Amino acid sequence: MGARSSSSSPGTPSGGLSRVPYLPGLDGLRAIAVVAVMLYHANHTWLRGGFLGVEVFFVISGYLITLLLVGEFERTGGVNLREFWIRRARRLLPAVVLLMALLVVYITAFYPAVRESTRGDFLGGLFYVSNWFQVWVGQSYTAVEAFAPLRHLWSLAVEEQWYLLWPLVFMVIARRSSTDRQRGRTLALVSLGVMVATAIGHVAGASANFLYLSTFTRCSGLLLGAAMGFLWRPWRIAETRRAEAGRALDAVAVLAVLALLVSFLIGHVADGSTYLWLLPMVTLASAALVGVVVHPWAHGARAVFGSRPLVEVGKRSYGLYLWTWPVSRIADAYTGSWVRFRSEEHTSE
Questions:
Q1: Are the C-beta atoms of residues 317 and 136 closer than 8 Å to each other?
Q2: pLDDT at residue 13 greater than cutoff 60
Q3: Measured between alpha carbons, how far is 346 from 237 in angstroms, rounded to an integer?
Q4: Distance, CA of 198 to CA of 196 (rounded, Å)
Q5: Average pLDDT over the chain, rounded to an integer
Q6: What is the mean pLDDT of residues 15-25?
Q7: 340 compared with 250, residue with greater pLDDT
Q8: Which residues contact 297 (CB under 8 A, 6 or more apart)?
Q9: 111 or 183, which is more confident?
Q10: What pLDDT shows up at residue 323?
Q11: Residues 326/149, Cβ–Cβ less than 8 Å
Q12: What is the Cα–Cα distance from 235 to 220, expressed in whole angstroms?
């Protein structure tokens, strides 16, 4: 949700190839993901599997962050970790702090009874460990419980932990003698390994809360996106566009969109199929869509996902994600629908 591709223009030929152009199709893909999540947050009966849209964000983030790191490493022979972390903090922290500040005012003025019960959520959100806090207390934002307007920050915690750790890992593997292709293939295999391990964990009876929220089990999309960052930079292609390849890419996009729509329609947090095949399918479909919408030959897919309405929504996806859950929970608190809405889901995400 937080990474954004660069729009800087190339300098020298080699420097230009290492820079990441603005990729509007990724903003369009973000729009699809955030609308799915918003519908789920507003009322889970509208789109039962809308929560799977978060996985689309993970794949995009893994891809873009790795592209930026690869580009900087190619240009300078290293990565300025301090500047990288400062950029991420400047982009992500102000909006979260504002959200928390306004929620503190609201709770103090209108809902003081929940001050104690929400304290852990505020601390977890502030330090980007919401996912582990929810694992620790054994509850997620779909659990039957009291007013919890910050439980959706678990996904931002996973991403922030990725932003903290992945550049360090990247520096280690980038300095090895292996090629980008070898690095990408290795990461793709690790991603698939995480998917398999998560499915095995579900069969073995692991906590659904841990499987859905932990950084270890939710890094498959980030890892697959990172693998693509090493393997897939099609804007560097010097060949003339080929119509046959473009049609094939557009066909892949159609199949991937259908896979996402099916997942959003039939997914359910209480269904074990989430960990056995739905989540992996969404991860793979998201990676396929990312690969298509950034390719210069995929004329149809780029036209759709690069359309202005989708792009404008995608650019605002971070703010939309931040606010739809707490606004929906405040509305539930006033209408008395909280218990009725949540009592239908006895298993947490």
A1: no
A2: no
A3: 50
A4: 5
A5: 88
A6: 79
A7: 250
A8: 234, 237, 241, 242, 245, 246, 249
A9: 183
A10: 95
A11: yes
A12: 25
Under 8 Å between Cβ of 62 and 162? yes
- Least confident among 80-84, 143-147, 271-275: 143-147
DSSP string, 197-231: HHHHHHHTT--HHHHHH-TTTT-HHHHHHHHHHHH
Q: What is the dihedral of CA 242, 247, 248, 250, to 10 degrees?
A: 120
**Cα separation values, 225 from 21, 73, 117, 342, Å:** 17, 18, 36, 33
Q: Residue 255 above 50 pLDDT?
A: yes
* Exposed / middle / buried, residue 179 (Cβ in 10 Å: 0-12, 13-18, 19+): exposed
User: Do the beta carbons of residue 226 and residue 266 sit within 8 Å?
Assistant: no
Q: Is the Cβ–Cβ distance between 134 and 212 less than 8 Å? A: no
CA contacts within 13 A on the Cβ side of 67: 28
Which residue carries 């690790």 as its tokens?
A: 190
The residue type of 269 is V
Count how many Cα atoms sit within 13 Å of the Cα of residue 349 in the half-sphere of its side chain.
25
Evaluate whether 111 touches 314 at the Cβ level (below 8 Å): no
pTM for the model stands at 0.91
Using the predicted structure, report yes or no on whether residue 184 has a pLDDT greater than 70: yes
Amino acid at position 348, single letter: S
